[in-house]
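idk why but the lab printer keeps eating my pages so im just putting this in chat instead. protein + magnesium ion:
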Amino acid sequence: VEVAPDTPAIESDRGKLQQIFLNIINNALAAVADGGHLTIGARPESTQGINLRFMDNGCGIPAEDLHRIFEPFFSTKTGQGGTGLGLSITYNLVHEIGGTIKVASEVGVGTCFTITLPLRAEKAKETAHAGIVGR
Ligand SMILES: Nc1ncnc2c1ncn2[C@@H]1O[C@H](COP(=O)(O)OP(=O)(O)O)[C@@H](O)[C@H]1O
Ligand SMILES: [Mg+2]
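predcted complex ->
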């Protein structure tokens, strides 16, 4: 874990962050071989938030799959307990707390998920998730 010294603290939703980190870290640990690496980096994102990176040196994701990994039920782990729901849930949760998520990957090299989060989770989206408005 590499946290840049000037990384600010953020105010956010503990349960959602827990779910987001769990999904991404579990996927990375499934993708690496014995002796592989997962590096988690945190640094400031302009003055508005933080930038988190989850970099593994696992199997990587083929270019033709890359645009589908956030779709519900897309999984290459069918028969190995994969549901294909982890990243679609993660994508929604990140946006609910006002963030963004991106992926870059190369087969045989590894995968990097980049998440940006605001200094404070957005209020309106929090309310929406509570079932008061929509969703
Ligand atoms: N770190 C990663 N390295 C390689 N492939 C990944 C990684 N994270 C996600 N994937 C790919 O994205 C697919 C969807 O992930 P996810 O939604 O968590 O579903 P599941 O893990 O249940 O298959 C996975 O099946 C896998 O093919
Ligand atoms: Mg998963």
